[in-house]
Amino acid sequence: MRISIKSCALISAFVILLGSVSVVFPASQTVQAAVNQKLLSGNAVGSELFPADAPAIATGASYTWLSEGTHATDPGLLASDESASPDMSDGGNGPDENASNSTGSVVGAAVYGTLIYDLKSVYKVSSVTVWADTNNQSDMDQFEVYASYDGLTYNRVGIQENTNAQDSGFAPVSLAIKPIVNAQYIKVIMHKDPNKQVMRLGEVAVYGDALEPMAILSNNYLRASGTYNTTKPKIATGASYTWLTENPFITDGDLIKFDNDGSKNDTVGGQPDLIDGSSTESDAASTTNSIWGSKGKFGAVVFNLNDVYQIGKIDVWTLASGGNKFMDGYEVLVSTDGVNYTSLSYTTNTSSRTANVFVNTSSYGVPGQFAKYVKIIMHNANNSEILTVGEIAIWGWKLYDASLPKQATPDQVEFTAKLKNYSTMYLDWSSYNSVVNNVNKYGVYVETSSFTSTLGLTPKFTAEAKSIEQLGKYLSYFALKPETTYYVAVTPFQTTGVERRDVQTLKVTTPSVLGGDTVGDIFAINDAPYGGGNYMHHGETEDLFLMTKLRLLRDLGGINKNRWWDHSNAMKTLYGKSGLNFHYFYHGPSYVEADNNGGAYTFSTYNEPDLANRNPASVAAQLKINHDSLKAISSKSLLVEPALAGLDRLDPTKGLNWLDDFYNSDGQNGALVKTYFDVMDVHPYVKYEYPAVPGLDQGTPEKLLDTLKQLKDTMVSHGDGDKPIVITELGWSTYTGGSYLKKVDRATQRNYLARAYMHAIANGIRTMHWYDFADDGTETNNLEHNLGLIDWNGKPKESYYGYYTLIRVLKDANYVGVVPGIANPYYGYQFWDENKNRYITSLWDASWQTTSTATRTATIETTEPGVTIVGIDGSYKYVAAVSGVVSVPLTGAPLFIYSQANVTVNSIN
Asked: Which controlled-vocabulary keywords does the entry list (predicted)?
């Protein structure tokens, strides 16, 4: 049953509620005015490249070549560098081999040189220059720059192409980092031109200036002595905080109850517990506690800093006592408008559980990621009875001085742009000094040709005075077209209404419809806004339920696409503002242009035609008609077919047997049929009747490894093996039945979701839509009523939190491969995240069923002092290595091991 779309007036309410979605993705470029610079990277002054009077700060900086990850340094560069006089900072340039180094000779291959500068302290970093040889045999194609405070969490702050002419020798290539970032660690990834034999590098230099010390931003009371005393620098922000009381992270009521309960509660006259200046917490009046039995529960708090700042460091003081009072870690998210949050990282509490004191679990911000609002989600350990929180202190720096005289002509707007996917772009100009520039409105221009003035152009979006976008200086813009280059500018309007029209544009090129660079492109959902055939309507609260769904979808922070059948412009806008576009059913050419404008470029004709007993030849004929019709309107749009109901050969008329008949209907083994659609679409549900994987329970997602192989073999047999594959439905139901799918409990549904996504990633699946987001009803024995990540009332299930964790862990990662040395029933995959500068190794025991099942232990070899482990259940753990080995218990719930160096599984016992 299809339910009619509500009034478009609902959009206004959602725009106010949702604003624009903030998700961490690599920055494309930035725009900013020039600044004075000093050499920070310790390059030899009085040398060939740097004269004796060159402005420089004696930072004591040094660099190391990164030999891990997807951009590991070529061995030739490592071998040709000199440890006594490092080539990249000796002040000398090529062609002398004593002043340069070179990669090995490989034509047509991706080769990198990745170095990390440690500036030994935090500085303002304004530019990076690389000297690289350009001739008929050697060239650097481009370089990327990442910045970090702690050497663990990075943010890409720029990329620069090498535009030097052929035979220009060891010439400089410079990147201006815009806006300027504060950082201690600078990672530079230099890409060899794949058409050249080698990449020869002469020098790398980092420029910037000194920076004042971090100051307290969170309005903590400064006591006469102690950690937070009157000698500490503090900015009078007037900051305050509130506890979160709605899903998905509801603070335990006692944490709120015992916080800030009058003058008796802090020993200094009524300051809220989290900012009363007490870090020793010797008096219970300076702390707040959850209720006994709060295992695995949350304490979530949002600080309002009242202006935008660069976050430097965060202190979180909690009690570690007796083993049953322990916060195992927390997540930090930041926002400029209080609506759209970006996750910075997870931080694990590495203290002893039995320290019997308050311990500080510190974390750091991300350079170039600014914040007015800081959300901290603390997780009580799964076996901890009480979460006891003392002080939280947020440190950082001012971005601008609002007390300066107002300018008659406003500065150009400096901004960053980050692509979520091919259709959604996030613009952030929150470091712009709107007060001094007397600006209260902004124009956003997005064009396909470069421009230097906005005269004659119409803004694609206007951030009006007092709008969410104007106040937050942040915009989620949709919908862009795939594989298209855009030129973007943000212009200031002064309160007089006058716009500064001269601009420096930012160039952004979108990826293909099926994805960009990271495995996070796979994350998608099925969510019919107003329900489907088995749906129980919410009556008068239906719109409220839709608002709840959109907020929870947005909070997942990485869902790219939703699958639906109705072409409503209202829904395109609502979901687009939450960062999602649509995969639609194809209903003819009249819808295509509007759908493209709403970000939709994938379409399907059928849903499970084999299950519906549709004739394969008739389906093929219709697909040819639809494909020709679709491509005539939009060459970039993709026809995604046929959405098979299963990948088995149990029934001669269904599944892969139906697919054979479909290909063979042209009489040429599929030579024609394969041209009738662009992407293979399947619904590989692990059905009740499928035989189990040996040694595993029936219905586990490990069956996907066999069924997807059979699908690929079938496609190859018809000459269609190169076609990309998507999954538009897959899920497990928490129902009490068991006639079609195996029934699972909520924890198992969560585990299966994570395992299924990782199997799909390893098999090259481009997009996978989980079926579905919300339960369709409340009947416990109804399969369709229990497939959701949230229940019919909008309350998240364990699978919602599992998807949340999976997205946080893998969204920005690259797939490396299968973990070697393990076999069924043990599974694992390895990933590399350039932003985290770490490997992520997943492991689980697929034979594990319940807590009564024997738990296996993986013995893992590492060269690091210890590893951090994030569980799909939301847990955090630091495991110290003993003689280079850590022991990790395995269950059916995947865990993720973070390590800067590769780890090896020695055994599983």
From this structure: Signal
Q: For residues 630 and 623, give the distance between their C-alpha atoms in angstroms, rounded to a whole number.
A: 10
- The residue assigned the tokens 């839709």 is 546
CA nearest neighbour of 770 among 788, 745, 786, 785: 788
Specify which residues 642 forms β-bridges with: 681
H or E element at residue 584? strand 581-585
Which residue is associated with the tokens 């492109």?
Answer: 521
Q: Measure the CA–CA gap between 896 and 891, rounded to whole angstroms.
A: 12
Determine which helix (DSSP H) or strand (DSSP E) holds 140, and give its type and residue range. Answer: strand 140-148
Share of the chain above pLDDT 90, in %: 88
Structure tokens at 478: 């949709």
Cα 291 to chain center, whole Å?
A: 33
Q: Is 456 helix (H, G, I), strand (E, B) or coil?
A: coil
- Range in 8-17, 70-79, 352-361, 893-902 with the lowest mean pLDDT: 8-17
Phi then psi for residue 830, to 5 deg, are -120, 140
Asked if 335 and 372 count as a contact pair (C-beta separation under 8 A), the reply is yes
Residue 908 makes CB contacts below 8 A (sequence gap 6+) with 822, 826, 845, 856, 857, 858, 859, 890
Q: 301: closest CA among 382, 348, 245, 354?
A: 245
* CB proximity list for 2: less than 8 A, separation 6 or greater: 532, 565, 566
The token pair that represents 44 in the structure block: 């030899």
Q: Give the position of tokens 């004796």.
A: 52
Structure tokens belonging to residue 851? 């807590």
- Under a CB-based contact definition with an 8 Å cutoff, are residues 50 and 44 in contact? yes
Concatenating the DSSP letter of every residue in 509-566 gives: E--BTTB-SSGGGGEEEE--TT--TTPPP-GGGHHHHHHHHHHHHHHH----EEEES-
The model's pTM is 0.94
Q: Which two tokens stand for residue 290?
A: 């959850």
Q: What is the CA radius of gyration of the chain?
A: 28
Mean pLDDT on 733-743: 92
- What letter represents residue 873's amino acid? D
- Burial (0-12, 13-18, 19+ Cβ within 10 Å), 805: buried
**For residue 216, what is the enclosing H or E element?**
strand 215-216
Pairing of strands 856-861, 388-398: unpaired
869: amino acid identity, one letter? I
For 770-783, give the DSSP string: ES-SB-S---TT-G
pLDDT digits (tens, 9 = 90+) for 358-388: 999 999 999 999 999 999 999 999 999 999 9
User: Is the distance from CB of 739 to CB of 733 less than 8 angstroms?
Assistant: no
Residue 332's closest CA among 218, 236, 430, 233?
Answer: 218
Query: What's the first-to-final CA gap in the chain, in angstroms?
Result: 52
Cα 238 to Cα 307: distance, rounded to the nearest angstrom = 10
- CA–CA separation, 366 vs 846, rounded Å? 36
The Cα 146–Cα 93 span in angstroms is: 24
Q: What is the DSSP letter of 482?
A: T
- What lies within 8 Å, CB to CB, of 385 at 6+ separation is 292, 293, 294, 295, 324, 325
The full DSSP string for 71-124 is TPPPHHHHHHS-SSS-TTTSS--SSSTTS-EE----SSS--EEEEEEEEEEEEE
Q: Are 803 and 558 in contact (CB under 8 A)?
A: no
Residues 6 or more apart from 851 whose CB is under 8 A from it?
none
Strands 895-899, 904-908: pairing is unpaired
Letter string b/e over residues 337-376, b meaning 16 or more CB atoms within 10 A of that residue's CB? bebbbbbbbbbbbbbebeeeebbbbebbbbbbbbbbbbbb
Which residue, chain included where needed, has tokens 């979006």? 461
Q: Do residues 807 and 126 make contact, with C-beta atoms less than 8 angstroms apart?
A: no
Average pLDDT over residues 596-618: 97
Both tokens of 773, joined, read: 């987001």
